[in-house]
Specification:
alpha+beta, eight-stranded mixed sheet, seven-stranded mixed sheet, 30 helices, 40 strands, 20% strand, elongated, disordered N terminus, phosphoprotein
């Protein structure tokens, strides 16, 4: 149960499930444990997005989520709206920066953003072309730039800054990609349980038989560049299908068909180059199997013998006495392997650069107007063995973390200063000290500067250079707080934790030198495409140090930071919840570690700086104006004063908020929750009022419909009583909720449609009181008998006299006059009953009968009726007759005559009478009381009720027609029937001495039973209440005064006293 309370449904959120806190600035406790717990709640409920102010937190769900599909975008799902708002914030030179460790979901987040922009923006042919390139660039660059690592099945092994350019109309009409530090070393070697770049496996699995024959494609375990790790497949990845997507992407981007084929030649040629092995022969390296040279030479369009020569020897320039001389130096086995790998890496890196440039050419735009940049870069990496590549990757992440801290803190400080808010600076870890440790040039020199110095003095392969580097690092930065030595390398205390780097191969990979011999070799290719990848002019003299990989990545990282500083960066902090890559698997310690090194706690503290919530005055007023009548619906005055009025009206302590120049700052989340709760209560009150009014309206409509249906049953068949034609239908006239002695005969949850005390006539026409109950199942007739035996002997007990199933009733007979008699005809015998509320009973009976039998109940109208008697013992049975005659008055006069019962009653309202509308019956009263209101006079007016002592003379008429039907009995028939019902019940015990009623100076009346007013100008009263009579009206709606309130009430609910 406790877990259920954490996730609730909230009516204000359009029935969107709420889980945890979506903005972690509003967490009541700012601790790593509280942050992790909140993220876990949302992750388990499939809410992968949370935020800290403008910073988005994304947890990798390791499954496909229903976000940003055409259906979700069209229906504007909450996630799409959230991301749409996030994108709008970045528009006009904005950037998205997904940050997190490898496998945290940065690449997918970047794809979501680019895909969403493409789907929601409009445009014509040119714009659609750019959109297609934006979408198709992802599978192409992922094929050539992503690979499986031990921590991520689709890890980005390069950095990408994708700039989407917009027209003034907001349409994407251009773009540009900048790529950083492709991990070229992966082409020639991979760690255990990892793979090479996806494209190699896609080519092997997805190429056609003809392509395989032309490219010499074998199984992946045949190639040395693929079989080192022993991993060839990735769960959930279809390499064959993705190869087709890669080729389709090349087509969309506009890469010519011959260039596409040449790109595949290079990929296959690299695989075949890797199979060339070397042996040591007299301290020199030799190709072990010359036959293996033929296929890579064929694919790359170069001479086989020249390829062998350039792999085993190198041309060196020597200067002596002012003269330069070129000599060929034969390489040893290790150097030959290095040369082969250097050629493979260079081919792959230059092919990758060509693909990026092809995408840029397809999207290039002469004039830049507005842009949104998406930075998708490798995450922070800690492996079992961390080499030069991890060192460069983690350095770039340090730079991004530094700008994140600076810009976040800077933005907060600027807002507080601008608003004039007093706040206490927050202490946080500034990782600039780590960045300086890596990239400083002098005093003291950074790790990269020391590395470049060592590489400048290396010769050939440079054995021992790595040991020299370690010694120089100890001398230069050995005393730094964030640097330590260890037996095989050094340790850096990054913002994400301590990382141990293996020094082996640092210098060689940093040099990243491609010898001129290899460039010359590739420039001799017969394929123009391959020659275009090596445009260097080898005849020019080179001066100065060659560019190292470290200096290149340092320059690119600083250029990226400069670009981000010119824009408005927005961050997506990506979190990896587990190492198993399975959905709904949560590793608490791993997530907590990421929360710590991503600085989420410091980010929240900086964001709050003592204030959890801030909002401009206008928005605050709009949201909470409903709390006071002065501010709702509009505040007339200065907005700041309106906000102050709201805060004072809810009694918020002054130390809980500060007023800025344009914003209100609320200190604690609890204060905001208080405002939200009060706002919700207001809405709840209004909702209840609307619901109450609606239910009242529906109930009114229901009863009006019931009266109409009842009137239709008797229409043109039976005269009507003037007091029943507009009577409200109550249904339960016995108070069954308080009558367990009657409910005992019904089922436990059996619904009661109608209940009333009626008169039953036996074979001798003797009247007997019965309680008539109608339910959806049947009709119950309940009488009372004296107990003859047992401990309750002599007591009166309720007895079920008869139960009739609805479906067993054959018909109902009635007369055509205004009496209350009706006969229920059933297979065994009939029942003659008399009820004041026969019309209501018959309407409900007809409805239930039709529901059960799918047929109409037969109603017979005649002034001579017969009913069959019940057989008793040896005799009984037979029939009895009822004869209805015209008489005087509204009360039926009964006179038995043998087997006949003569019933005489005066004329009632015509058979064609229908109910009068509520408006028409009250219109005359309105005309009398408010002459300025024009309303239509009633078609016919109900006479007012007379007194008990005598009958009031009929109103004067211009015609000599018989107007006896307008005469009303001394008291309303409803009242008489109510008295009859009450008289059968034992009188209640006196509770207290009744209060003496104040003497009235005018006429008064007593209510016969309860009436609930259905409009604001009506009186409501209980039974036996005394009402001061202000005015009687022929319409039947009288005016009275009760408890100081004056209003209308139906005259047939009272009797004059």
């Amino acid at each position: 149960i406790g877990k259920k309370k954490a996730s609730k449904y909230h009516w204000q959120s359009q029935n969107v499930k709420q889980s945890g806190v979506d903005d972690m600035v509003l967490l009541s406790k700012i601790t790593e444990d509280a942050i992790v717990e909140n993220l876990k709640k949302r992750f388990m409920d499939d809410y992968i997005f949370t935020y800290i102010g403008p910073v988005l937190i994304s947890v990798n769900p390791f499954k496909q989520m229903p976000y940003f599909t055409d259906r979700e975008i069209e229906t504007k799902c909450p996630v799409c709206i959230c991301v749409h708002t996030y994108i709008c914030m970045c528009y006009a030179c904005g950037t998205y920066n997904p940050i997190g460790e490898s496998g945290a979901g940065k690449t997918v987040a970047a794809k979501y953003i680019m895909g969403y922009i493409s789907k929601v923006s409009g445009g014509g042919g040119k714009v659609q072309h750019v959109k297609d390139i934006i979408l198709q660039s992802n599978p192409l660059l992922e094929a050539f730039g992503n690979a499986k690592t031990v921590r991520n099945n689709n890890s980005s092994r390069f950095g990408k800054y994708f700039e989407i350019q917009f027209s003034r109309g907001g349409e994407p009409d251009g773009g540009k990609i900048s790529n950083f530090l492709l991990e070229k070393s992966r082409v020639v070697s991979q760690n255990e349980n990892e793979r090479n770049f996806h494209i190699f496996y896609q080519l092997i699995e997805g190429s056609s038989a003809q392509q395989k024959e032309a490219l010499g494609i074998m199984t992946p375990d045949y190639y040395n560049y693929l079989n080192q790790s022993g991993t060839y497949k990735v769960d959930g990845t279809n390499d064959s299908k993705e190869f087709q997507e890669t080729m389709e992407a090349m087509q969309v981007i506009g890469i010519p068909g011959d260039c596409q084929m040449q790109a595949l030649h290079i990929v296959a040629g690299i695989l075949h180059l890797g199979n060339i092995s070397f042996i040591e022969a007299g301290n020199y390296g030799q190709v072990e199997s010359p036959d293996l040279l033929a296929f890579p030479a064929y694919l790359l369009g170069i001479d086989q013998n020249w390829l062998q020569e350039k792999l085993t020897s190198r041309k060196m320039d020597s200067k002596w006495g002012g003269k330069s001389e070129s000599i060929n130096v034969t390489l040893n086995q290790e150097q030959a392997c290095y040369t082969r790998d250097a050629l493979s890496k260079a081919l792959y890196a230059r092919l990758f650069d060509y693909l990026v440039e092809a995408i840029n050419k397809a999207m290039q735009k002469p004039i830049e107007e507005f842009s949104v940049g998406v930075l998708d870069i490798y995450g922070f990496e800690i492996f079992q063995r961390n080499g030069f590549e991890q060192f460069c990757i983690n350095f770039v992440n340090e730079k991004l973390q530094q700008i994140f801290i600076e810009l976040t803190l800077k933005a907060e400080q600027e807002e507080y200063v601008q608003e004039g808010i007093k706040w206490t600076p927050i202490e946080y870890f500034n990782n600039k000290i780590v960045c300086d440790l890596i990239e400083n040039k002098l005093n003291p020199p950074g790790i990269m500067s020391v590395l470049d110095d060592v590489c400048a003095t290396m010769h050939a392969k440079g054995e021992g250079a790595d040991g020299t580097l370690l010694q120089k690092l100890q001398a230069a930065v050995g005393t730094h707080d964030h640097f330590n030595n260890w037996n095989s390398g050094f340790v850096i205390h990054h913002y994400a934790g301590k990382v141990s780097y293996d020094i082996s191969g640092f210098c060689e990979r940093n040099r990243d030198v491609l010898f001129p011999d290899l460039i010359e070799l590739m420039q001799s290719s017969e394929h123009a495409f391959i020659r275009s990848l090596f445009p260097e002019n080898l005849n020019t003299d080179k001066k100065g140090r060659p560019t190292t990989a470290g200096s290149k990545i340092k320059r690119q990282a600083n250029e990226l930071v400069d670009t981000l500083m010119k824009c408005t960066p927005h961050y997506i902090r990506c979190i990896k919840p587990n190492e198993t890559k399975r959905p709904r698997d949560w590793e608490e310690s791993r997530v907590k570690h990421q929360v710590e090194y991503l600085g989420l706690k410091e980010n929240i503290r900086v964001r709050r700086a003592g204030f959890a919530y801030r909002r401009v005055f206008k928005k605050f007023l709009q949201r909470y104006s409903i709390l006071t009548p002065e501010t709702y619906p509009y505040w007339r005055g200065e907005e700041k004063q309106g906000v102050l009025h709201l805060l004072r009206s809810v009694n918020m302590d002054t130390d809980q908020y500060q007023m800025g120049r344009t914003k209100i700052f609320v200190k604690n989340p609890e204060s905001l929750f208080l405002l939200e709760e009060m706002r919700e209560r207001k809405f709840d009150t209004f909702a209840r009022a609307i619901q109450k009014a609606w239910r009242k309206y529906i109930a009114r409509r229901k009863y009006e419909q019931m009266r109409e249906e009842a009137s239709d049953i008797l229409y043109n068949s039976k005269e009507r009583r003037r007091n029943s034609i507009n009577r409200n239908f109550v249904g339960d006239y016995l108070g069954m909720e308080e009558r367990p002695e009657l409910r005992q005969f019904l089922s436990k949850r059996e619904r009661i449609d109608f209940a009333d005390s009626v008169t039953k006539y036996d074979r001798r026409f003797k009247s007997i009181k019965r309680d008539l109950i109608l339910t959806p199942k049947g009709i119950y007739l309940i009488g009372r008998e004296k107990v003859k035996k047992g401990p309750e002997k002599g007591q009166i007990k309720e007895v079920l006299k008869r139960k009739l199933d609805i479906g067993s009733i054959r018909s109902v007979s009635l007369s055509t006059r205004q009496d209350d008699f009706f006969i229920l005809h059933e297979a065994q015998y009939d029942s003659l009953l008399e009820s004041m509320f026969k019309t209501e009973f018959l309407s409900l009976l007809c409805k239930r009968y039709e529901e059960q039998t799918k047929a109409k109940l037969c109603l017979t109208f005649n002034d001579r009726l017969e009913f069959r008697l019940k057989k008793e013992g040896w005799g009984g049975g037979g029939t009895r007759s009822l004869v209805f005659q015209r008489g005087q008055g509204d009360t039926a006069q009964v006179k038995p005559a043998g087997k006949n019962l003569n019933i005489s009653v005066g004329d009632g309202l015509p058979k064609t009478s229908t109910q009068f509308s509520r408006a028409s019956t009250r219109s005359q009263e309105q005309m009398y009381s408010t002459p300025d209101k024009r309303s239509r006079p009633p078609n016919a007016a109900l006479p007012k009720l007379g007194s008990q002592k005598g009958r009031r003379a009929p109103a004067a008429q211009t015609q000599n027609a018989n107007l006896d039907f307008l005469n009303v009995p001394d008291q309303g028939m409803s009242g008489m029937q109510r008295k009859r019902s009450i008289s059968q019940r034992p009188p209640p015990a006196p509770t207290s001495r009744p209060k003496v009623q104040p003497r009235s100076h005018g006429p008064r009346c007593r209510s016969l039973y309860q009436y609930v007013g259905q409009d604001v100008d009506e009186l409501s009263f209980e039974a036996n209440e005394v009402i001061d009579l202000v005015k009687e009206d022929p319409s039947g709606w009288w005016t009275g005064r009760l408890r100081g309130k004056e209003g209308l009430f139906p005259g047939n609910y009272v009797e004059k006293i």
